[in-house]
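Residues pack. One example:


***
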Amino acid sequence: MKVSIFSTCLVDLMTPNVGKAMVEVLERLGCEIDFPASQVCCGQPTYNSGYLEDSKLAMKTMMLAFEHSDYVVGPSGSCIAMFHEYPKVFKGDPEWGLKAVALKEKSYEFTQFIVRVLGVTDVGASLEGTATYHRSCHMTRLLGEKETPYQLLEQVRGLQLEPLKNSDNCCGFGGTFSVKMPEISQQMVDEKCQCVKDTGADILISADMGCLLNIGGRLSRKGEPVKIMHIAEVLNHTVHPAAVKGGIPT
């Protein structure tokens, strides 16, 4: 199965280790990986700021970058959700409207692809520790994916998952929201940090690096010894290939 990687800006520029982990997990599951070099930002920052026309150049660049891909997989529910907005943006456009629908239909967030396309829930990973999981707003509410991260984390050997109070609440990052409303954003991330602290977990996991960098940065400033991990890093931790279960493609 051929999979094109959409790295996202945050992973590409700040946390390449997450992209590496994602690729290693997918390759272990039998995927043939490629990385279209012409990819850029998905256009979300300008789109969410109201600059629709200025966003279209980035969107068109992405549609062309992945035009010949079978599947597009990214380590961010937020950025993949932006791909799913493209058909609305280009509705009625005879050329780009069809390309937008095509990209939406073959684009998946990392955990969503593993569970819903590959049919795998146990990737053979092991991680000793107590963790809690933060659900990002965009992945949950815009992409509509709530279950796949939990399905995969429940199979990680040695990992004890603690429920996170108010897990539906935003962490205050919200892309440009944290820049436009810094005072409110700080109050929101402080509430999230307190909920994380109350779990007693020593690891905070999420599927979006924007949230993790926001919460992790605030936890660090508060002196809270909570480690942040993207779910790709967890699923790539101490893997025993013989333990992988659930329909690995051949």
